[in-house]
Write a structure and sequence with these properties.
This protein has 101 residues and is mainly alpha-helical. Helices cover 36% and strands 4% of the residues. The longest helix is centred in the middle third of the chain and has 21 residues. The chain starts with 10 loop residues before the first helix and ends in a 7-residue tail after the last strand.
Length: 101
């Protein structure tokens, strides 16, 4: 990889990314991170050159079936048990304070 081909990042851009990541960088760290980020961005730019026209989009590299089960109620609590610890109940329902007036 040629150093001249690297993306040029300013210290301001590096510090903005660091702030978004909640990092505090010193001047020497910002300089080093600028070089590292430039190499990463240069590599990503190289990936853009790959011909992926014959590659189907995938969400997972291994063919998998989702292990789903039927959504069926298997045990239903009794109303009295459900309301046993409720601060207030009325006629089989929870009583809660109004949120919209």
């Amino acid at each position: 990889m040629l150093i001249d081909a690297l993306v040029k990042l300013t210290a301001e851009q590096v510090n903005k990314v660091a702030a978004l990541a909640r990092l505090t960088l010193g001047a020497d760290e910002s300089e080093r991170m600028a070089a590292d980020l430039a190499r990463i961005l240069d590599y990503v730019a190289k990936l853009d050159e790959l011909d992926t026209s014959g590659v189907e989009p995938t969400s997972h590299v291994v063919a998998m079936a989702a292990p789903l089960r039927a959504d069926v109620v298997t045990s239903k609590p009794a109303v009295a048990d459900a309301l046993a610890n409720a601060p207030q109940s009325d006629d089989g329902y929870f009583v809660v304070p109004p949120i919209i007036e």
